[in-house]
């Protein structure tokens, strides 16, 4: 038996609190589990159809980040196969700081050329954030070498928010209200060196306040770190993403993005402001120096994806996606309508309704996830959905009609 | 200009200190860079030969963790190709909490059967540690649900040490001297709930103090978390690794391992003590619930690797590796000789000698890395090397003779 004077071991809970977060988060998951909406086991049919094999139920998935449908593009699959055959190995199983397969070097070179600046690869986008953010906090990626105050946007992706306690051990780490330029400017006025950590395109459909941030960068030397995973390949002439297509790279900006979404393969890419940073991060990026990096099939698939990015097909797919987004926005003019991003939150009011909508949609052949408090405000529960280029016009319209039909009968 | 009264933003540096660590670590990397021993760009030839294409220099790599040579096994390469063709996609690009490809489910089932207990998959072993360790700290993986004091072995792999500040925000987090059972027992006496975080087989060649730890587990209910990446596939009848082959799973033990080393593919596997933990971690494992998980080629390669694990070939490869280790240990009876692990530290004395040895070895066709203070004690610098099953007897002997020849001429 534990005595009542047992020492208290609970941490400071300065940046996280599992007790609180999991109580809330797991409620959502268990709710979805009750309705059979998690742990669905599927076969991939073709295009965007999946088959729930346990129930022989075919459905369209509207929660996949493969916004251009490149995850099932024949040329990308063939790229993976060709690389396996050419290299004769799945990976070298060693640190790529020491030894780099030429195919990986080629991929870095082609991505650098595609995005116009040094590109560093990681096993995933979260591995890149894990490796890079603490180096920004400790001042190792900026000229003066001094620690920076880290300001994380309250809505930045979990993969970055997760790193807060690590950055917090290196330097003062704060959380800002979402897109709150005044808050960030106040921090810049108070401290000489500040970095702001945010998504470029947010996973709930919104965008970063880029223009205002660039002004703060010019005025105060604000370092900007963006995870632009949700817009890579879908925005910009070369698919360089929302942020990169709207700014020139500079030594005070760093963009990371997942290649496992619209790009169609796996791994993560960091767009850097200088070659010097490339070498330094490569050597001292912690998780980036461990022995698991991009595997040969993923490198091959990525080279094939770059070839597609350089062909007219990219523009065609981007246009098709934009057509589908516009079709949806016309039917449902939500808050983020017109911003060109494929993620949409469709509010229906109370949590109960959101859960019923998501359940009924699945029954009728569409998988979207219900979102409710605390992900969105109370009374603004709804479903989150992701549009894709590999949906035909009539599929988008049929989906919209189905949602309307269900909601009308609530 | 910054005023001398500028506010101090340096973090508490309770668990890490980039300023100090990078000064030391980068010195090592830059030293290796000077000698052309990092950033080598290679093609994979066959077996364990690499070609430094810039210098047309062929060499044997002795820093690869593919201890059984499975990374270039034709059946594993074919497994990846078959899965791509069968599934027609590189991945579904969505959270596997929601929707799981049947091929991933099959892999989980086969690994569960191979290792005798629930197996959970992650995009990498470090993603598993990132997801699981904070849940142990906050008490979410143990029956009583109360926070645990986290004791990290001083030598545990960076991928776990990295998580210290995150665990430290949830509960009291300590670092123990290496394999120090007395230290751990003292913590167990002071606190009712403790978890110990360690490698099974260490990346520098040693082993965990398993027997003593199991006694502490029985006596104090100590939770044991092992990363056994370096022994997976090479130890145990089914390749279940050093720790798992010496103990029965129980709810107070959790083993993670990388599949990108001897297993020959990529991703990470967690061996869990109960199905209940599987479901909970799957839903609340943070990084494990994000949309990047094992890709289809890696799943296919892994299924092929399991088939090999179930055939007599596994035993043959394990035996060949053990023969090579024994050959080496006979020539160089180092501290860890006889422990059956493939990683060896070959001490030569001063740092200068270690660097020269590594450089000269590379010239003569072998890549091993020099290690020196602070990785090893002063005066015990040397080279670190990894033996493999895909080395012939004469290759091991030729390597040993080369080392002796170089050292004799120092």
Automatic annotation (TrEMBL), chains A, B:
The keyword Phosphoprotein does not apply. Transmembrane segments: none annotated. Its cofactor is pyridoxal 5'-phosphate. GO terms for molecular function: 8-amino-7-oxononanoate synthase activity; ligase activity; pyridoxal phosphate binding. It comes from the Bacteria. It comes from Archangium gephyra. InterPro entries: Aminotransferase_I/II_large, AON_synthase_class-II, PyrdxlP-dep_Trfase, PyrdxlP-dep_Trfase_major, PyrdxlP-dep_Trfase_small. GO terms for biological process: biotin biosynthetic process. Keywords: Ligase, Pyridoxal phosphate, Transferase. Gene3D superfamilies: Aspartate Aminotransferase, domain 1 (3.90.1150.10), Type I PLP-dependent aspartate aminotransferase-like (Major domain) (3.40.640.10). Pfam families: Aminotran_1_2. This is 2-amino-3-ketobutyrate coenzyme A ligase. Residues 209-401 form the Aminotransferase class I/classII large domain. The lineage of its organism: Bacteria, Pseudomonadati, Myxococcota, Myxococcia, Myxococcales.
């Amino acid at each position: 038996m534990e005595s009542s004077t047992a020492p208290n071991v609970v941490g400071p809970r300065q940046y996280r609190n599992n007790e609180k977060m999991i109580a809330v988060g797991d409620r959502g998951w268990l709710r979805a589990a009750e309705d059979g909406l998690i742990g669905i086991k599927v076969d991939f049919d073709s295009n965007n159809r999946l088959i729930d094999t346990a129930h022989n139920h075919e459905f369209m998935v509207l929660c996949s980040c493969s916004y251009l449908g490149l995850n099932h593009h024949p040329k990308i699959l063939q790229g993976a196969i060709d690389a396996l055959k050419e290299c004769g190995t799945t990976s070298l199983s060693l640190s790529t700081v020491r030894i780099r397969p030429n195919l990986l070097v080629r991929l870095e070179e082609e991505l650098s050329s595609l995005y116009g600046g040094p590109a560093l690869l990681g096993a995933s986008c979260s591995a890149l954030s894990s490796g890079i953010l603490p180096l920004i906090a400790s001042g190792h990626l900026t000229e003066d070498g001094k620690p920076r105050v880290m300001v994380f946007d309250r809505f930045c992706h979990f993969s970055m928010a997760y790193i807060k306690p690590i950055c917090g051990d290196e330097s003062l780490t704060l959380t800002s209200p979402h897109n709150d330029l005044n808050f960030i400017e106040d921090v810049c006025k108070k401290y000489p060196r500040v970095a702001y950590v945010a998504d470029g395109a947010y996973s709930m459909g919104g965008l970063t306040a880029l223009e205002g941030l660039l002004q703060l960068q010019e005025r105060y030397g604000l370092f900007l770190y963006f995870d632009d995973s949700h817009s890579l390949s879908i925005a910009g002439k070369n698919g360089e993403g929302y942020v990169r297509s709207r700014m020139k790279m500079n030594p005070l900006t760093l963009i990371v993005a997942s290649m496992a979404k619209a790009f169609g393969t796996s791994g993560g890419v960091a767009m850097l402001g200088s070659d010097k940073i490339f070498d330094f991060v490569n050597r001292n990026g912690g998780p980036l120096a461990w022995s698991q990096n991009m595997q040969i099939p993923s490198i091959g698939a990525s080279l094939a994806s770059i070839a597609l990015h350089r062909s007219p097909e990219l523009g065609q797919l981007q246009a098709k996606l934009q057509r589908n987004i516009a079709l949806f926005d016309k039917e449902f003019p939500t808050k983020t309508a017109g911003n060109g991003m494929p993620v949409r939150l469709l509010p229906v009011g109370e949590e109960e309704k959101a859960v019923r909508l998501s359940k009924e949609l699945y029954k009728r052949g569409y998988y979207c996830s219900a979102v409710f408090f605390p992900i969105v405000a109370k009374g603004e529960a709804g479903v989150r959905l992701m549009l894709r280029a590999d949906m035909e016009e009539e599929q988008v319209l049929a989906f919209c009609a189905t949602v309307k039909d269900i909601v009308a009968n609530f």
